[in-house]
Design a protein that fits this description.
The complex is a heterodimer of chains A (300) and B (402). Chain A is an alpha/beta fold and 300 residues long. Chain A contains 15 helices and ten strands. Chain A has helices spanning 2-12, 30-45, 59-67, 81-84, 96-111, 131-137, 142-150, 161-165, 170-177, 194-203, 219-222, 246-251, 254-264, 268-279, 285-296, and strands at 22-27, 50-57, 73-77, 113-115, 125-130, 157-160, 186-189, 210-214, 225-227, 240-245. Chain B folds into two domains: 7-176, no CATH class; 187-400, MetI-like fold. Chain B has a three-stranded antiparallel beta sheet with strand order 2-1-3. Chain B is flat.
Chain lengths: 300, 402
């Protein structure tokens, strides 16, 4: 009885008196903060009421909250489709175009989520080596790397356990390029993130001279490392794109036209530079995002 | 707060020459001096991602601050060697407090001097700084115990040190330290995060006490309940917090969707609601356990005597059991507050905000000064809350009659 009364009372409160603000969220990491701030700024600048839920949590929390309807829009990576739909082994994720089409279709049909146009940047796993090593031994691509390793070249790679063991990470590189790193050539950091591995390589901890990293990592160049080009496309493509609930996009159809040009400008080099401003120089993600938007769209 | 007299104040410890007044202080001074000589006072890094190069106290801070720190250390050494007397303890406590503040000032001064290395360069606190500061803080605690300082004097000391720190901070002494640079880029966020952290802790303590206290009483009154109750609470305690947050998203979102009014109040699958639910669940075990232990530990004869005097069940509870159990209950409350302040850091993973935001952002970037910006205030919040509860416990009237 009391519960029923409470239900009536709470249900009767004006929930739709004013349009609900669009809940903008992001993952907790640097790039999440950067891309989330861009989405937030663009929507707010065009008169759409927003609620800031940036740096909400790790991928699984943000995804669960989105599926539960608690988040209206957030930046996600196309390659995570394998994780979300338990299709990690499907080769579709290694193609930029087909991977995007696949996740867009699955999320639209199953979850009423719309994927807007992705950025050209690819935040996939890469192997970064010290610049001096790269120059001395002519390492620019993963094919060069495989040749160097197979020719008995000295290398020690710092990586997380996930990178070493996940079939789509290091084993995918090894299979595509035909090399194999022994245990002595690996320094596995159990819960290691790319900041830790990059730092290990940059400072030569325990003889490490190569590190797992993400393509758009801002720290790679700042730490004197260089990312090797995945010239055979061994890795899943992780292109960032805004994901928005279909109902919200229906209410504000202009969102797509506003965000598409912003994400189209996010090349690998641009994202690396912006991420570096946050991670290396310690600038605030909000102001880095605002500066980028201003540089692209000079205020009239 | 009455503490048992330290035997060290009466007789020298083994292995020390007779007449050495305070072996604890002596050890602290030696440790601090050794750390200052052997390790970097600050570390200079070209940017915030790479490890810094350690710089010693003298070359980092210059002559005057080094002499000040060394002189205070020498005076404390003298205090450690002199025969113990009350005025000496008071003087040593004052000297240690001055040493703590001088060390802080020296670190700030060092950072301002070397910060010219470039806009991205960072000066962080080194091992020697932490060692000297920790030894000075421990020396203060030690001297307060020897002084048998009451709650008022302890509070006054803490306030004096906090005041000194605030004065230094307002004067801009610390502005060039890496942790202050991290603070400067997000000072608004910091105020929000700190307020949110306190709100999360306060918001979860109320419900936790309201549920846990009666459960603890029930566990004592109905022994059959104990097994299943503690089994559930122990299990809850072992669920990793991030998993618990994940599990709470769906039911809380459904609740908010069913009751829009609840959603308007801020209840939802993300944000503070799941964080508070999780913090309450984690707080239940220590509250229930301490309530039960406090009540069960009362001598049956006391209760029989009270009953013999004609007190009702209710009177026995409020006038005999509760006062007698209060030290254990307060100890439980201290554990719960400190635990909740710590656990609330993890709440950042579900969008609840709080100081954990900086911890996780810093961990992601390997920017340790940003981690410290979240962790240090959380530590000081916990210490402060613990200290306040100790003070309150010492002032409670029924404790005096224990």
């Amino acid at each position: 009885m009391v519960v029923a009364g409470l239900t009536l009372l709470l249900g009767a409160l004006p929930a739709a008196a004013s349009p609900q603000p669009v809940v903008v969220a992001s993952k907790i990491d640097t790039e999440g903060a950067l891309l989330g701030n861009m989405i937030l700024d663009v929507l707010a600048a065009h008169g759409i009421a927003v609620r800031n839920r940036l740096q909400l949590g790790p991928t699984n929390i943000v995804r669960a909250a989105t599926l539960a309807g608690q988040i209206d829009i957030y930046p996600e990576y196309t390659g995570n489709g394998g994780l979300f739909f338990r299709m990690e082994k499907d080769p579709v994720w290694k193609s930029r175009v087909r991977g995007y089409a696949e996740i867009a279709k699955l999320d639209r049909e199953k979850n009423h989520l719309i994927w807007l146009a992705p950025a050209p940047a690819d935040n996939t796993w890469v192997i970064a080596v010290r610049q001096d090593l790269a120059r001395r031994d002519h390492l620019a691509t993963m094919s060069d790397f495989a040749r160097w390793v197979n020719g008995g070249g000295r290398i020690k790679l710092a990586a997380s356990a996930e990178f070493v063991e996940s079939p789509s990470a290091l084993p995918a590189f090894e299979a595509s390029y035909g090399f194999r790193l022994s245990d002595r050539q690996l320094l596995t950091l159990a819960g290691g993130n790319t900041s830790a591995t990059l730092r290990a390589a940059a400072e030569g901890m325990s003889g490490v001279d190569a590190a797992m990293a993400y393509g758009t990592d801002g720290a790679i160049a700042a730490l004197g490392l260089v990312a090797l080009d995945d010239d055979k496309g061994a890795q899943i493509v992780y292109a960032p794109a805004p994901v928005v609930r279909a109902a919200v996009l229906q209410q504000y159809p202009q969102i797509a036209g506003l965000l598409d040009p912003v994400f189209a400008g996010l090349t690998l080099a641009t994202l690396q530079r912006l991420n570096a401003a946050i991670a290396v120089d310690g600038e605030d993600a909000g102001s880095v995002a605002a500066d980028y938007l201003k540089s692209r769209h000079p205020p009239p | 707060m009455t503490l048992p007299a330290d035997p060290a104040t009466r007789r020298p410890a083994l292995g020390l020459p007779a007449g050495v007044g305070n072996p604890v202080l002596l050890v602290l001074v030696i440790v601090a001096a050794a750390a200052a000589a052997a390790s970097g006072f600050v570390a200079l890094a070209p940017n915030r991602l790479v490890s810094g190069r350690p710089i010693g106290l003298l070359s980092a801070a210059g002559a005057a601050p080094t002499i000040a720190v060394a002189a205070l250390g020498a005076l404390l050494l003298a205090a450690a060697l002199l025969p113990p007397r009350k005025p000496l303890h008071a003087a040593a406590a004052g000297l240690a407090a001055l040493l703590l503040l001088s060390t802080l000032a020296a670190a700030g001064h060092a950072a301002s001097t070397i910060a010219a290395a470039g806009p991205a360069a960072r000066v962080s606190l080194g091992a020697a700084f932490w060692a000297i500061a920790a030894c000075a803080a421990l020396a203060i605690v030690d001297q307060m115990q020897r002084l048998r300082a009451g709650p008022a004097l302890r509070l006054l000391t803490v306030l004096a040190i906090a005041g000194g720190f605030a004065a230094l901070a307002l004067a801009g002494t610390f502005d060039q330290l890496a942790i202050a640079r991290e603070y400067a880029t997000r000072h608004q966020l910091f105020a929000e995060a700190l307020g949110r952290h306190v709100a999360l802790v306060a918001g979860s303590l109320g419900p936790a006490l309201a549920v846990g206290f009666p459960l603890g009483i029930a566990a004592v009154r109905v022994p059959r309940l104990q097994g299943p109750l503690f089994a559930v609470l122990n299990t809850l305690q072992t669920v990793p917090s991030i998993a618990l947050f994940g599990l709470l998203i769906v039911p809380l979102s459904a609740l908010a969707a069913a009751l829009p009014g609840l959603a308007a109040l801020g209840v939802g699958g993300i944000g503070p609601a799941p964080a508070i639910v999780a913090l309450v669940l984690y707080a239940l075990l220590p509250i229930v356990r301490n309530t039960a232990a406090g009540l069960a530990g009362i001598d049956r004869a006391v209760i029989e005597a009270a009953r013999g005097m004609g007190l009702t069940q209710r009177q026995i509870f409020y006038r005999v059991e509760l006062p007698l159990a209060s030290p254990v209950l307060l100890a439980g409350l201290r554990i719960v507050i400190v635990q909740t302040i710590g656990l609330a850091v993890v709440a950042a993973l579900i969008g609840a905000g709080g100081l954990g935001t900086f911890v996780f952002e810093g961990l992601g970037q390997y920017a340790l000064d940003l981690v410290l910006l979240g962790a240090l205030p959380a530590i000081f919040l916990a210490l402060g809350a613990d200290f306040l509860l100790q003070t309150v416990a010492a002032l409670l009237p029924f404790r005096a009659r224990r």
